[in-house]
UniProtKB/TrEMBL annotation:
Span of domain Cytidyltransferase-like: 95-222
PANTHER family: FAD SYNTHASE (PTHR43793:SF1)
Residue ranges constituting the DUF357 domain according to the UniProt record: 13-79
Protein name listed in UniProt: DUF357 domain-containing protein
Coiled coil location: 4-31
Pfam families: CTP_transf_like (PF01467), DUF357 (PF04010)
Entries under InterPro entries matching the protein: AF1782-like_sf (IPR036809), Archaeal_FAD_synthase (IPR050385), Cyt_trans-like (IPR004821), DUF357 (IPR023140), Rossmann-like_a/b/a_fold (IPR014729)
Spans through the membrane: none
GO molecular function: nucleotidyltransferase activity
Keywords: Coiled coil, Nucleotidyltransferase, Transferase
Length: 227
């Protein structure tokens, strides 16, 4: 168990380093080959996140290593410039949660703002939780929603929640530095504060001040229904 935890921790560090490096990436000499290699880097990074989410940390590390090698090769050739994180750099863990049914620009905006704070861990509501809270099942299943979210560059890991929801268990698993809420999730603050205290975790609760206008899953579903 200790070895598995160490392996997962190393995989997370590799991914964090890559994420920080790609944020500083600057192309010095543009050509189609460079563009193709950068796409490969991003593909390997996506694969690293996926395998980590499947608890296959060794394959995740291998994918990250391939991406690192490609970036270093491009820099040696003078094609790109970037900076690896300084030793001891720690990207904060940012925990977000939601249904994310029919992904739209409002969701992307929320996740992008979360990514500005650190590495994003998404807790996805189970189908049964959605059915109970909204009175109807989601359009996309929990596995389909998770698969879509894992393809986003802003997302480090997707965790399908529990039924019934167990905030304390999720907090203990992710150990976030920040819990980031959407503008309509204020009602969760007392419950999260209580769960953080029970889990013995000191995390800051932050909230997006306003949603991106004119976008909501409910409105999109209604428009589809009326079309």
């Amino acid at each position: 168990m200790e070895q598995e935890a160490k392996c997962k921790n190393n995989a997370e560090k590799y991914i964090a380093n890559l994420e920080e490096a790609t944020k500083t990436l600057q192309i010095q000499e543009e050509d189609k080959t460079v563009e193709q290699i950068i796409r490969l880097v991003n593909d390997y990074l996506s694969d690293a996140r996926y395998y980590l989410s499947q608890n296959d940390c060794l394959t995740s590390i291998a994918c990250s290593s391939y991406a690192e090698g490609l970036l270093d090769a491009l820099r040696l050739l003078g094609k790109v410039d970037f900076s690896w994180p300084q030793q001891g750099h720690h990207a904060k863990r940012v925990l977000v949660g939601g249904v994310f049914d029919i992904l739209h620009p409002g969701h992307i905006y929320f996740l992008r703002k979360a990514r500005e704070l650190g590495r994003v861990y998404v807790v996805l509501a189970k189908d049964q939780t959605v059915l109970e809270s909204k009175g109807r099942p989601p359009v996309l299943s929990e596995n389909e929603r998770a698969e879509i979210l894992r393809e986003l560059k802003t997302v480090t890991e997707v965790i399908i929640g529990t039924y019934p929801p167990d905030f304390k268990k999720i907090l203990e698993e992710v150990k976030p530095d920040i819990v980031f809420l959407g503008p309509d999730q204020s009602y969760l603050v007392p419950l999260i504060e209580k769960s953080l205290k029970e889990a013995g975790i000191s995390a800051e609760i932050k909230q997006l001040d306003k949603r991106l206008e004119n976008y909501s899953s409910t409105r999109i579903k209604q428009s589809i229904k009326n079309s």
